[in-house]
Structures are given as structure tokens and as C-alpha cells.
Design a protein that fits this description.
This protein is an alpha+beta fold. The protein has helices spanning about 35-45, 60-70, 95-100, 155; strands at about 10-15, 20-25, 45-50, 75-85, 85-90, 105-120, 120-130, 135-145, 165-170, 180. The strands form two sheets. Strands 1, 2, 3, 4, 5, 6, 7 and 8 form an eight-stranded antiparallel β-sheet that branches. It is elongated, with a radius of gyration of 20 Å.
Length: about 230
């Protein structure tokens, strides 16, 4: 919106379905030119998602994303992603000449990788450009989506094997209660160990807090859609 201050660490924002895409300043040089940003957007659309454990994911992006999760202590991770569309960029010393004079540069091929997290009122997806020698942030997607009533956090994260079969009722109730999870994954089945068991580390009532900061990039909650 014209005249509205952008969050710190952000140079541009675009509307997306259900929320906003914030383009961050960390790797601004790789996203500010329009042609580059179009290619990144196309790579986002072709993202392939894997479980938070990284099972089945190619080793290089998996190790990079797991290190980001570890360093930034990211929580409520629902998936790790890598785009099937490689991104071609001029080698760093050639970018200005390519942009200003349309010279034919030396090209490098990079990958777009991502982390999806469950946050208060929806989802946060962080996108990073993997240049091989280093990884830097390019964009953040904030999408508002209410978690269904009586669906456990673990099932919402597609981490069904970690669900105890129980979910907390909404925290605005005076006395939150645990109730059977409504997911159809089988988490309530006795064969899966569903149901409350002694020593269970069931979901904490405060597992998702409003205004938690996620990752190392400063941001605000997206404004209400107009």
C-alpha cells in the first residue's frame, strides 16, 4: 500500500492469495530486478515439499535448510521445500553489466529452497536462494488460515506420527481441555497409541503465541486485507 511503512528488513510487498509476500533486503540484489523476481515467483510455484525431517529430499538443500532451522531455532516447521525450477543468474561481478548494458554474462545456476511454519493465525513460508557457497533470504509469505477446531498441532503440521491423538480446545476458553483429534490419519487408533498416555508431551496450550518472531528477519503481522 502506498504510504504505509514496510516492516524492517523488507523492501517490497505483494498481495498473494490469503495474505502477503514480503521481499526481504538480505538478498535484494537477486530479487529487485523485475526479470529476476519473475523467475523467483515461477520457482515458488514449482516448489516440491518434503516432511520436516527431510526424508526423500536431495541432500544438499536438506542439510542447508536443517542448518537454518537449527541456527534460528525455528519451531512448528511443517515442511521443507526445494524448487524443481533452477534459477540462472549472472555471476556476481557480471550483474551490473548485465542489467545496465545487456552484456552477455557468465551464468550461474542456483536453487530456491523454503521452510513452511505454522504461526499464529496462519502460515509463514520463508524462501532462500541457495548459491552453493552461501544461502540468503529472498522472500516471506504470510497467509492467514484458521486451524480447524479440534485438530492437533502435529496433524496440522502433517507430522501425524507425532500426534498423541489429542488436541487442545481453543485457548480463549477459561479452562482449555484436551479433546480427540479430528484428523483421519489414524492418530486416535489404539494401534497407533492414540489417546492420553502417562508421560505424554501433549500439545502445550501456549504452543502458538501471537506476535512470536520467526527466524532472524524482523517482520510485522500482515495488515488486514482491505
Amino acid at each position: 500500500m502506498i504510504g504505509q511503512r514496510l516492516p524492517g528488513g523488507v523492501w517490497r510487498r505483494d498481495r498473494i492469495t490469503g495474505g502477503w509476500r514480503y521481499w526481504v533486503t538480505e538478498y535484494r540484489g537477486y530479487s529487485e530486478p523485475g526479470a529476476f523476481r519473475i523467475n523467483i515467483t515461477a520457482a515458488i510455484r514449482s516448489m516440491t515439499w518434503y516432511p520436516p525431517s527431510g526424508v526423500g529430499m536431495p541432500m544438499s538443500p536438506r542439510l542447508g535448510l536443517q542448518e537454518i532451522c537449527r541456527q534460528r531455532e525455528l519451531k512448528m516447521v511443517a515442511g521443507l521445500g526445494v524448487s524443481s525450477t533452477p534459477l540462472e543468474y549472472p555471476e556476481d561481478p557480471h550483474i551490473p553489466a548485465y542489467l545496465d548494458q545487456s552484456h552477455d554474462p557468465i551464468w550461474a545456476t542456483y536453487s530456491l529452497i523454503a521452510i513452511k511454519q505454522l504461526i499464529h493465525r496462519g502460515w509463514l513460508t520463508s524462501y532462500f536462494l541457495d548459491r552453493g557457497v552461501e544461502i540468503g533470504g529472498v522472500a516471506l509469505d504470510f497467509v492467514r488460515e484458521a486451524r480447524p477446531e479440534r485438530l492437533s498441532v502435529m496433524c496440522a503440521l502433517n507430522r501425524h506420527e507425532e500426534c498423541t491423538g489429542l488436541a487442545w480446545t481453543r485457548r480463549w476458553l477459561l479452562v482449555p481441555q484436551r479433546t480427540p483429534c479430528v484428523c483421519v490419519c489414524g492418530c486416535r487408533s489404539p494401534r497407533r497409541g492414540g489417546g492420553e498416555r502417562p508421560g505424554d508431551a501433549a500439545e502445550e496450550v501456549e504452543d502458538l503465541k501471537p506476535n512470536d518472531e520467526v527466524g532472524a528477519i524482523t517482520h510485522e503481522e500482515p495488515p488486514n486485507e482491505e
